[in-house]
Specification:
Length: 341
């Protein structure tokens, strides 16, 4: 009888251990499932030396996107138009580009699937931001640009800057000498080789053209141009992943808030991770309002540009760009950031 009781006791112990092990495995699996459910990968196409790249870098480094359930996969491109291609082709879910290029891309593609989520930045009044850099030996006033090679990154907001430059300078179309370059790096090279005598530039590109001997002649503020940039997605991704986009927008704004509250620390991260000099980053913070918003001015900017681009033959048919704005995700993420009619 004693041996029999010991056998029963051994069986009971083994059952308890077995059940405990199963429970542990179930708890572990449950934790893994929960983590998988809470985190979603978002592929973001960013412009080099741009706020979206900096937000991605700082937000990942500080764990802000992870805290909001977002695992970022970042692809870097030379210009905003390339991020649009990446999003349209399904290589990324979210992209960004300047107002002019965005208006142009939507108008140039029949039944565009791009949808505008928010404005990400706007140049501050009275600050230099982007400037027209010129060869001082050849250009001393805007009127000197007549007949001289002026570089522009075709298909980007540079086209608009150049048009407005000629308008203010009073230079007729027959006297304009526009040299198309593929991207800003090519524009810097053209300045260095003497193939152009003027180029609109900012940030690192501005530093490089200054190294080539160029100097700032006027700023966008002098032309009363205050450029916006926007984040966008596709209609399909928005329909299927609205909650994910809301989380992304929350994390994006939280990262901007952290950067503005910790400028020196953010500059150090950008310098170490993106190889952008700290002073360039800090200068950008000083010259731009970085925020997610859909204010009346954000909507008016692209509405006016759509009219200008259509009138100047950038696309065949006028369209209502407001119909491509999808404010619901931003309104859910940051209610106070949406204010337009």
């Amino acid at each position: 009888m004693k041996k029999k009781r010991m056998s029963f006791l051994l069986v009971a112990i083994l059952l308890v251990v077995g059940l405990t092990g199963c429970a542990g495995n179930e708890a572990q699996n449950s934790g893994q499932d929960t983590e998988t459910e809470q985190t979603e990968t978002v592929r973001v196409a960013v412009m080099t030396n741009n706020i979206t790249q900096w937000v991605a870098t700082v937000g990942e480094t500080q764990g802000i996107f992870a805290e909001n359930g977002i695992d970022l996969e970042v692809s870097e491109f030379a210009a905003g138009i390339n991020t649009a291609d990446a999003v349209a082709l399904g290589q990324a879910e979210i992209g960004n580009m300047a107002d002019y290029a965005l208006v142009n891309r939507i108008g140039s593609v029949e039944n565009s699937t791009l949808r505008i989520l928010a404005s990400t930045q706007v140049t501050k009044d009275g600050t230099a931001g982007t400037s027209l850099y010129v060869n001082p030996d050849q250009i001393k006033a805007l009127s000197d640009l007549a007949g001289q090679p002026l570089g522009t990154v075709i298909g980007t907001v540079n086209d608009y800057y150049v048009d407005q430059t000629y308008t203010v300078a009073g230079i007729s179309e027959v006297e304009q000498n526009i040299v198309a370059v593929s991207d800003y790096a090519a524009g810097v090279t053209a300045a260095q080789t003497g193939d152009i005598v003027a180029l609109w530039a900012s940030g690192v590109d501005a530093q490089k053209v200054q190294t080539a001997g160029f100097v700032a002649l006027i700023s966008l503020a002098d032309l009363q141009i205050f450029t916006n940039a926007y984040v966008f997605t596709t209609e399909t991704y928005l329909a299927d992943h609205q909650e994910t986009i809301i989380k992304y927008l929350k994390a994006y704004q939280a990262t901007i808030d952290w950067m503005l509250a910790n400028e020196d620390q953010a500059a150090k991260i950008i310098e170490e991770k993106n190889y952008i000099p700290a002073d360039v980053f800090l200068s950008s913070l000083a010259s731009q309002y970085y925020r997610l918003s859909l204010e009346q001015s954000d909507v008016d900017t692209i509405t006016e540009l759509e009219d200008w681009e259509f009138q100047n033959g950038n696309f065949k048919q006028s369209y209502d760009i407001r119909s491509f704005i999808k404010a619901d995700p931003l309104k859910a993420a940051l209610p106070a950031s949406v204010n337009f009619h």
